[in-house]
Amino acid sequence: ACDDASRRPWRHEVATGEQAMTTTGGRTWDAARKLCNFLEQEWPTICSSYDCAASAHILELGAGTGWLGMTVASNLVPDGEPGSVCLTEQSGGGAMDWLEQNLAENRAAGLALSAVGLQELDWTLWEDCPDNPSSPSPGRSLPCTPGGTSSWNLLLGSDLVYNEAGVRLLPKVLKDFAARCPDLLILYAHTLHRFDMFDLDFCESLLREGLEYRAVAAENAATVEAAGRDADPLADEHAGFMEEMFPDQRVVIFQIRLQGASKDFLPWSSCLVARPPPKELKAAVVSQPRPVTKNGIVKVGRFGIILPLETEDPEDCREKELPDGSFIVRLRCLGPFGSGEHPTTELMLQALQDCKLDDLAVCDYGCGSGVLALAALVLGARRSIGVDIIPDALLAARANVEANTWAGPVDGEPRMGLFLPQEDVLEKDLDFYARYGDWRKPEANRGWEPLPSKEEGQFDLVVANIVVGPLCHSANAVQRLLRPGGEVLLAGMKEGMQVSQVKEAYSPYFDLTAVGSIDGWALLKGRLRGIQMATPEA
User: Fold this and answer.
1) CATH pick for 292-527 out of 3.10.310.70, 3.80.10.10, 3.40.50.150, 3.40.50.1400
2) Which terms under GO biological process does the entry name (predicted)?
C-alpha cells in the first residue's frame, strides 16, 4: 500500500454534499482537505517511520461527511488490499445517519470502499476519566479493527474543537488511544484563530492529560519558522498568538503523542504551501493623507471620528476642533473594533466619500461599532442597516447610534437598524453556535433579531469590512441583500492570495475590481450582475 500510494497521484473521487445539522458534520471542512493533502505527500515518510507499510489500520474521529476517511481508504486501502479504515461519529444529531448515507452513495457510485467500516464513538464516556496519562481508561472500549483488536496504526481528526466539550474531552480520548496503541501516529488538522481561546485551552488540555504536540505542517508555511506563533500557540505564554487584531485563520497539522514517547516527531512538511496566484496589476495606492489621531479624533479625509474618552464627559465638544464642513461621527463605544484607525476601515471611509449616497439604502455587513453605517448616513444615505453576528458588536453600535442624534428616527421611521444575520446564515454558522448556542434562544441572541427576509433585495450598496474567512463565506448572503445592479465594497483582505480567495468566492455574483490599497490591505468593488439569487443556499 505504501509503494503504490507514493507512486501515483491520489484519486479524489469521493462526493459528499452539505446538510444542515445540529452537529458540525454537515459539511467537509477545509482542514480535512488539508490533512488529506498532507497524507498524500508525506505517506512515504509516514511508512518509513511507523508500521504502515504492509497494512494500515486507520481510524478517523468525528468523521462528519466521511470525505476524508473514504478518500484515504480509496487510495491507501483499495479493495483487496490488507488494512482497514474506521469512521467514527456520535450517535445523536443525525451524524451517523448522514455518514451512512454518504458511504452508501459512494459505494453505489463504484468507489472501492470495502475496507471502510462505521462505528459509533461517544466521547462523553471519557467525561469522568481520571487524569492518569500513563494508563488506559478502564471500562471504555475503543473501536476494533476487523481482526478484533484495537491495534490502530493511524488516528486522524480535523477541526473537532469548537466548544468547551471538545476542549475537555478530545484530549482524554486521544490519551486513551495513545496509551493502548503504543505505535499509534495521531495527526490532527486544526484551523487556528476561529476560536482563539479554545485554541489555547485545547493545547493546555493536551499537556494536562500527559500528551505533547508539535506542528508538522501549516498552511502557506514552507518552514516551521514561517509558521511563526501558529506553530505553538502556547509559546511565550501565548503573548504572540493573541496580539494580532486581524489574524488569518490557518490550518495547522499537529502530531500528538504521549509525553516521552520513544518515536521521533515527523519532520516538517511544506506540502500546504499554495502556489502563488497569477500576478495582477496592483491597485492604485490611496493618495489621500493617512488618518491622523489627535485628542481622540481620527481624521480620514473629511471625516472626523470622535473616539470615546476613558471617562465620559457630558460637556465633551471636541467636534469644534474640526474644520467646517467635516463629516462628524461620534463613537461612544468601540465594541470589538471599528474606529477608523485600521487601514481597512480607512479604505472604506475614503471610498464612501467618493460615492454618491444621496437617498440610497446602505447595509454594513459585519458592522462592528457601526462606524461605516453611520458614515453612510452622514453622507446622505436615506437609511442604513448594521448587521453583525457578534451580539456585543450590535450593543456597541446601538450606543453609537444613540450618541449621534441625527441618526435617530425621521417622522417616526428609523434611519438605522441593527440586526443579526439572516436566519439561514445563523442556522449554519458553527462559530455562533459554539460561542453562544442556538440562535433562537434568548441567552444566545441577547435580544437581537435576525435580519428580516423582507430586507433582501432592498439595498443599493453593501459594505463588508470583515476578516477574509467570514468575508468569503458571506458572499451569498451579501448578494441577496442587493437590488439588481447594486454594488459592494469589500475590505478585510490582504493583497495577493487573500484577494484571489475573495474574488473567487464572489465570482458567481460579481466581477470584483481592486480599487485601493493601504499597507498591503486591499479594497474591492463590484456590481451585482444578472438576476439576483433571492433564495438561501441549500
Assistant:
1) 3.40.50.150
2) methylation
